[in-house]
Each structure stands twice: as C-alpha cells, then as structure tokens.
Amino acid sequence: MVNFTFRGLMAPVFTAFNQDWTINTAIVPEYAQFLADRNVPGILVHGTTGEGSALSVAERKRLAEAWVAAGKTTKQHIMIQVGGTAFPDVKELAAHAEKIGADSILTLPELYFKPSNEQDLIDYLREISAVAPNTPLLYYHIPVWSGVNINMEKFLTLSVGKIPTFQGIKYTNNDLSEGYNALKAADGRYAVFLGADTVNCASASGRKACHCLANFQLVQPATALGFDSVIATGINFLPDHFNSIMAAVRANKVEEARAIQEKLTAAVKVVTKNGAWVPTMKVAMNAITPIDVGLARSPLKNLNAAQIRELQVDLPAVATL
Prior knowledge:
The protein is 48% helix and 11% strand. It is α/β, with parallel strands linked by helices.
C-alpha cells in the first residue's frame, strides 16, 4: 500500500524552451527554488501548462529527471504527468517516473480509444499502476480537453480496492457540485485537487475566451467548500494570491478571501485577453518573475510583439495584493 499525504498548493510548471525550441533544463533548480521560497510545496511536471503533449518521450524523461533532482534539494513534492501519448509510452513514462524517484504520478485518460465508463477507466489505471507499483497514482479529470466525462463521484466510489496505488484526482471542471461529491466519495479517502482551468465552452474559440475564469474564480468558493489542494497555472507567478485566499478561508475571513479572489481574477483577465492559455501565461511568468520560460512550442500560437509589450506594461499594475 502506497502512502500519499500531500495537500496544499501545487504549481503546474511551465516547460522552459530555449530560442531553438530545445528544452531548457538548466533553469529547473532556480525555478524550483523560486517556488519553494514562495511557499509552493508541490510541483506538477508535464501538465497542460507544461505542454507535455508537445514533448517527445525522451524530452519528457529528461525534464522529469531535472525536476526530481531539484525537488530533493527544495524538499518539494514532485508529481509527474505521464499521459497524453501512446499507451506503451504512457506506461514507459510511468515506470520511468518511479525509477527516478518521483513522489507521485498523474495521468490523463486514453485520448483516442477513450474509456466510456467507470470500469474502463479503472482497467486503464490498473495497467499504469502495475508498472509503477510503489508510487501513488492520480487521475487527471479534464473533460473539456480529453473528451472523457465520467462522473468522478461514481468512479471514485467504484475504484476502492481495485487500483493498488490509486490515491486521487486532479479535478479540472467548473462543476463544483460534482467536485464536492468527489471530495466526499468513498468516505473522503481520496485526494481531490482543484484544477478547474477550463469551462464547458462549445468551441475552441469559446474555450480560449473563458479559459481563465473557472480556474481563478473558483479558488475561493471551492476552498470554502472544503478543497484543501489546488493545482493552477497562476500559482507559478501569483503564488501569494493563492496562499492568501486559502489562509483567509481557513481563518473564516470570507470577505477578505473574496477580495483577494477578485484581484486574482482581474490579473488573469489582463493576462489572457489577447491569446490562448499557455502562451499568455508564459509571457506573464516572464514579465513579473525572474524565471524566463520562453515562449510556447508549436502547435500553440504565441502572442505578437505588440501583445507581449501590452501585457508587460499592464500586468504589474494589477498583479500585487
């Protein structure tokens, strides 16, 4: 039986690229320390924010190794997302994550031969668990992007005792009623990370327009409902906002938490007004922190020079508490 006790803030870190689009692993120790110094105890590698699906298996392994090594110094929890590729590669990445000493593994569902029900998903996760039998495994529920919309309360209830290393989910959905039910499923035995950075928009263009709102407008109400753990892109460059919201809710300072939430949402609206989620967030990271993560890799579309400059000018004014 594996043990998974991590709770709190986890930054889904960006993949830093050099100008020739090779991955920049040299920056990882500095990046990890930057987050550790700002009370961010967890790191998620190769999530949506980290452009995991735009990397080769070899690149993903190399970057995972860099983060695990850095985490040993900073004492941060390192979670590696292994999904989003061919199933043999998913299992190879999971086995590699365990070999290098990752603290936990997260996986997307199969994205082509999609699971259609709870048992399909249990069977899929059981195969991944088998190749990393000593590492906690979590499931990445992001139905707007994966196309897999299995009810998480029912899935968690049915999964008990069926996946040896299974410990919880990253819940990336704006439906807080289902999220709350997931928190309470199976007598609350599973970790449920709020990761709601998408909403159920009807089109890709709609997704882009409202991508930020669930992630940042849900933090305060979700924490008030009982979520004690968050994985959100903005933790990379606005960690004080997230820490302050969670502290205010724990202290029952509802109005203070709501006020900080409004500042967080205002900042993210400035960030995302001219482009898609990852490209705009990377520019924001570069603009207000000392960590240069470069631009987003193709097929993502980056901002033009004028849009980058606009964000660099406008963001600092709204990014402080």
